[in-house]
Design goal:
7 strands; Rossmann fold; 23% strand; 6 helices; alpha/beta
């Protein structure tokens, strides 16, 4: 199984981090056309595409990357009024799914034990997903570091 990451923004750091966490292929969309690059790697298209950006162009490209029966999962929101066009004929013919994901759409009772077990036995590296712990008082500095790309995740641990 391939783990593919396509960045929609100019963040080479994020691509390096994706490789570190198991991406087998990365595509820098600032250097190539992402839909064509995905189709070159996966001739039938992707089974799952996750949009963390929430921009019109990214959502439309995500749909175009899907294989028959594939799903586009929307996690990011650029602005509340963002929408994108869906070709109904292609969506129906390709049996494509579009799903919103809110806070991971998790079932805590099922999912936390499912992730805790491999983490506790050293088979899943979650610690390195957090670049820095911060206090609520320093949250603005944390956001600035996320924006400039020097960190991947900041977690507020003290209030």
């Amino acid at each position: 199984m391939k783990a593919l990451v396509v960045n929609a923004l100019d963040e080479g750091f994020a691509l390096d981090e994706a490789k570190r966490f198991g991406a087998t292929n990365v595509i820098d969309s600032t250097m190539s056309k992402p839909v064509e690059a995905v189709r070159e790697l996966l001739q039938d298209g992707a089974d799952h595409v996750f949009d963390f950006v929430g921009q019109k162009s990214v959502g439309e490209q995500g749909l175009a990357m899907l294989a028959a029966g594939g799903g586009l999962y929307l996690l990011g929101v650029d602005t509340p009024e963002v929408g994108f066009d869906v070709n109904i004929f292609n969506a129906i013919g390709g049996q494509k799914r579009l799903q919103g994901v809110n806070y991971g759409s998790t079932n805590a009772k099922r999912d936390i034990p499912m992730y805790a077990e491999p983490y506790l036995h050293g088979r899943m590296n979650l610690d390195d997903l957090v670049s820095r712990n911060t206090s609520l008082r320093e949250v603005n500095e944390g956001y600035a570091a996320l924006k400039d790309g020097s960190l991947t995740r900041v977690v507020v641990t003290s209030f």
